[in-house]
Amino acid sequence: MSGGAASTAHGLGQRGPVQAMPIVAMALVVLLFGVFLWVLHRSEREEETLTLIKDVLWVEQNLHFQLTSDEEKLQYLAESLGREDTTPVNYSVMARHIVTVNPAIQRVVRLDPQGRPVRSEPPVEDGPALDDAFGPSPRADAFLIARSSGRRAYSAPYRLGAADTAFEIVIPIFRGDRFAGALAGVLSIDALLTHHVPWWFAQRYQLEVVDPYGAVLGTKSRIAMPEPRRSHVVPFDPPGHGLTLVATLHQLSGNLGRNILIAAIFALTVSALWSLWAVRRHIARRIRAEEALRAEHAFRKAMEDSLTVGMRARDLDGRIIYVNPAFCRMVGWTAEELVGAGPVMPYWLPEDLAHTEEVFRAVLAGNAPANGFELRFRRANGERFDALIYEAPLIDAKGRHTGWMGSVLDITERKRAEELARQQQERLQQTARLITMGEMASTLAHELNQPLSAIASYCTGCLNRLQAGSIRPEELATALEKLSGQARRAGQIIRRIHDFVRKSEPNVAPCCLSRVLEDCVALMEADARQQGVKLVLEVGRGLPAVIADRILLQQVVVNLMRNGIEAMAATRRDRRRLSVTVQALDGALLTRIQDRGCGISPENAEKLFSPFFTTKTEGMGMGLNICRSIIEHHQGRLWFEPAPDGGTVFLFSLPVLSEPPMSGVAISHDERAADV
Questions:
Q1: DSSP 8-state assignment for residue 380
Q2: Among 489, 518, 631, 641, which is least packed, fewest CB within 10 Å?
Q3: Is there a single domain that holds both residue 350 and residue 488?
């Protein structure tokens, strides 16, 4: 901006506010001190509230102390009655003394072991009148509690006369270990408040005892409240039973006039001082703001130039309004060439134009994926690259949506590395299968030799009988059927070996897990027979299909079965048993492969799935690591547990196919047990 333009802008921006500053100053000062007075008034109210709370708590503690003192006196009298040497005269004197020195205690009643009143101090009429003088229900509950617990109990409040409410403290009496009745002290709530709440408290507050239903049972001050005042509630326990103490403030004190006078004087002083330096402060603040703006702009420009992530802003119509240097370097066009460009963008691929435009429209409609999306772009030199894009709304200073800001990452090298890692993993899995089959080669050769020897034997026998002319057609047919069966057996062995070791592209499709387990058991039968291990396959009925690569699942099962067979090398031959079971459980198929071997030590358990860790003398330590990678690739989980009867159980779960299995795929199988 030129110097003249800057001066003009400065003058226009300064003239109006400077002239209005005195009025604005007065308004702000009035507002400020209005808030100050409000805060001061609120502070005084909070202080009064705190004082109210403290006073109520003090009164509650004072009443609690008085009730505790009454309990102790009644307890002493009850203990005296528990001794044989206390005469009725002594009891009467002591009870009357308690009533005399404790105004809240109206009378002391002696109860027999059944809870019936037998004597009262001061006395009332005998007979039914003594029972009628006290409600049986509240005292009966307290009497039962005191008798069962051996401790004092408080009764629920009840009406005492026409205008008073009372409650009782029931103290059990024991003579030795024998329950000899109880002592009940009748306390008036009004008398308790009258004699034990100080005058200064009644001068400031109205104190009430309220039951759980809101009824007022007793009050200290009976001044009528003209309007609702602030109050505080605390539990009144003892006696409990839901009673509460409610203290209500009589009147609010304050010095509002004094506060207004102080505020007015202070406001005039501040206004006079503030008017003197308001203009100077305005100029200084403006200069500082301009310097901060320049520094902030330089800082953000440096951040923008150092970014390696491409930033691209578009308006609501999809036209580019901003690109950073990283995006320009990524696509090979300059900012001048890109800003203002609209669909079709120069970096879009012509052969992928339809898909790119579809994504472009989805972004403008606000439907861009929150976790980003991938597109292929081209550079100015024609080179293709993969980009990961995150789109977010572009909001201006007024909160309006003005476009979309996109973050663009070049992920070509990352995708190339992922593809290379995938190919390496496939080669590693193929190598592991070949190694497994190589280790089983001698056993499988022996297994294959049996049907071939049988075929040769049947052929020799048939030729000898044919040359001798002593074979009948039906005998020849029987021999040929047996020969055909042995040929099929040899063919199945070769097919399983071929399926297991052949190199093929990953083929994830609906798969019958029970058939995979049957093939694996058949493949391992020879090895298990040689080691004296009994194989047991248990498959549940009606199992759903899973989405998996059949060959990779075979590799996992064969590896786990071989580990189980080898783990039982030191087990007695009559205990060597390897069970393979599968069952449906919570939307997944759970496969268990359990051996009776030596188990896994705690120090090896944490490292069992680590690459290159093995407990075998000639192992590579990659088998279990590959197995876990295969299962996790199928969205499953592989783990192990100690077997209840010794050995180890390896378990893996696979999610089931959400739709019903394809027709023609047998899911249910009978239980199969192979004695080897």
A1: T
A2: 641
A3: no
